[in-house]
Amino acid sequence: MHSLTDTRNSTMITTENTEIGSSQMPPSLAGYSPPTSKRERDSTIAIVTSKNSDFRPEVGDIADVLSFQREFLKRTVGDRQREAYLACWGEKPGVWDTAYHEILLEIGMKGGKNFWAEGDAAYAIYFINCLRDPHAYFTKITKIPIPYTKEKTFDIINVSAADEDQARHAFFDSIKKILTLTKDPKTGDNWFERYAGLDLREEHGDFKKREVIFPVTEKGVGGIRLFSFNSGASAPEGIHMLRFYADELSRANTKARYQMANLLYDLGLANTRASFPNRVAKVIGWSYPNDTEWDLTHERYEKSLELESIYARRLKTWEFNPARTKEMFDDAYKADPIGAARIYECIKPISKDNFYQPYAFKIAE
User: Fold this and answer.
1) Reduced DSSP (H G I as helix, E B as strand, rest coil) percent helix, strand, coil of the chain, to 5
2) How far apart are CA 46 and CA 67, in angstroms?
3) For the chain: N or C, fewer Cβ within 10 A?
4) What is the pTM of this model?
5) pLDDT value for 229
6) Vertex 179: Cα angle to 177 and 180 (nearest 5)
7) Model confidence pLDDT, tens digit, residues 177-190
8) Are 214 and 129 in contact (CB under 8 A)?
9) How far apart, in Å, do the first and last CA atoms of the chain sit?
């Protein structure tokens, strides 16, 4: 496992005020005042854009993933959530990191897995929208020999091993809410509405039941597309996956459901490798373990011990989510110590009647 430490210095985001035109991307926002305290200096981290930059000058400096959570989403992340963000994005602002292809979070129930993934998806969408020429940028970092053509899309996919409703209600609908809540830290305006031209209305705007298609500045050019698919292994065919989010992998807890979930996950791994190679695209899966031998989350965690392309963490609910403590679950441990240990601590039983875990004495405590 890799240990990541954030030792970066921070600078403020620079933007300019302007009127929004209805038929073109708006110019930049007004500049921020210089920070006056260490806390203010540490509140954002960015790179300065220029005419030679990969980024659009009108969006100002590009926030890194941690300051985006704090300044644009007004979210507080815990230390382990922070570590997982840095595993995805690295420590250099303004860089699409390629250290890992797969991110696997075996985290206890209510551990903030969806919360973390929503923030990652929002930042990925923000990053792409900041680019001057996404096709040229991703051609460069994937190192493909033939450049991406302009019709190439950047697809962000959400699936669930439970069912389509789980995928849509537990994650996809939350992503739409997060996009709605993403504010420019200077003006308070919605960032995606202002800089991506996104119509935030449901159905009559760009928000549809199972998809969000971002506007493009030129007809025929491929842009960002968000899709929520069912749990069928053939559902996401024919698209170019830049992010593949797989929710509740371990809820596929029978042989038949496990086999389908495994096929779907393998499709995500294969498509991301082919669409945006060299670990540019990412597969992100999460769940807490089940009590059967058919457990894809647990299996992928064990696989991470063999493959350095996988970043995986197995953590208790309260280790990943700073808003929870173990004491909050005392009643659950008294009623069913083995079940509670599985659900909240990710201590995996072999089966309901044959339990294995390395620290049995702790359950008795």
Assistant:
1) 40, 15, 50
2) 9
3) C
4) 0.81
5) 80
6) 65
7) 999 999 999 899 99
8) yes
9) 30
Residue type, 154: F
Q: What is the torsional sign of CA 351, 352, 353, 355?
A: positive
Tokens read off for 16: 């300019």
**Two tokens, residue 264:** 């779907």
* Length reported for the chain: 365
Sole residue written with tokens 């065919």:
237
- Asked if residues 186 and 12 have their Cβ atoms less than 8 Å apart, the reply is no
In the numeric block, which tokens belong to residue 281? 């695209």
The DSSP call for residue 58 is G
Q: Average model confidence (pLDDT) for the chain? A: 82
By DSSP bridging, strand 282-287 and strand 241-247 are parallel
- Residue 156 pLDDT exceeds 90: yes
Strands, E assignment, 179-223: 211-213
Give me the amino acid identity at 119.
G
For residue 262, how many C-alpha atoms fall within 13 Å in the half-sphere facing its CB?
13
| Residues facing 283 on adjacent strands | 102, 244
Helix or strand run (H / E) with residue 119: helix 113-130
